[in-house]
From TrEMBL:
It is a multi-pass membrane protein. This is Nucleotid_trans domain-containing protein. Signal peptide: none annotated. The lineage of its organism: Eukaryota, Metazoa, Ecdysozoa, Nematoda, Chromadorea. One of its GO terms (molecular function) is mannosyltransferase activity.
Length: 231
């Protein structure tokens, strides 16, 4: 399996190491300690010689990380209270947890049925829901901030975008009209997509529930207004 599939080399590495060490113990009985040590060193040097050119090639491919919008976002999140909870796309929340250490409500690397259902509720920020309904969901889930990505919010409808998946999970036909995932969907235009509607901070129906606290060309962060915020 390790010969045909690269990932199997890593999965079985501990077992292979144990077998290799035991094999060397058996070889030592026949060849002696000195010969066995020479054999081990020879194998190590052979592997080093074989892989060194690959290592040099990979090191030449080093690239500088350059994503100022994400850096600015993380710096802002770092100014919030350490007990604050954030929600957004799963991949972005993983970065928030890794870089800033804030509480997150969904994560791509840990899941079960309950977490998947929670993520579906949290992804209402990319669905066609009223401001009040999304606010209730965020309060119920304990979110203090939501992070909206314009690349997701304004992605073209192709049947596979996050917006389309959120719509289809709610029984709404995607904007491109694709119905291949079921014929029981409905067209729905009562509410604008939340991630777009929440931009209108001049509307009392918006700013009474969500307040824009950070924005750059890629991300928008909104504070979830709760009852005790008015006290």
């Amino acid at each position: 399996m390790a010969i045909t599939t690269l990932r199997m080399k890593y999965i079985w590495f501990p077992q292979i190491s144990i077998l290799a060490s035991d094999s060397l113990r058996l070889v030592k009985k026949f060849l002696g300690k000195t010969t066995t040590n020479i054999l081990i060193i020879s194998i190590a040097l052979g592997i080093l010689h074989q892989q060194y050119q690959v290592y040099e090639k990979q090191m030449e491919n080093l690239q500088e990380f350059y994503d100022p919008d994400t850096v600015d976002l993380m710096l802002f999140i770092g100014t919030t209270k350490r007990v604050s909870s954030f929600t957004g796309s799963m991949q972005l929340m993983a970065a928030v947890k890794a870089c800033v250490g804030r509480n997150i409500l969904n994560h791509p690397h840990f899941e079960d049925k309950w977490i998947r259902e929670r993520t579906k509720r949290l992804y209402s920020i990319y669905g066609k829901y009223s401001i009040k309904k999304v606010h209730k969901i965020m309060v119920d889930e304990g979110a203090d901030y939501i992070v909206v990505e314009d690349s997701i919010c304004y992605a073209p409808s192709d049947g596979c975008s996050t917006n389309d998946l959120v719509d289809m999970s709610s029984g709404i036909i995607p904007e491109n009209g694709i119905q291949k995932f079921g014929s029981n969907g409905r067209f729905f235009n009562k509410y604008k997509r939340f991630c777009d509607a929440v931009k209108n901070q001049d509307d009392d129906n918006v700013k009474d529930y969500f307040y824009l606290v950070f924005q750059n060309p890629t991300f928008r962060v909104y504070k979830v207004i709760k009852e005790n915020d008015y006290l």
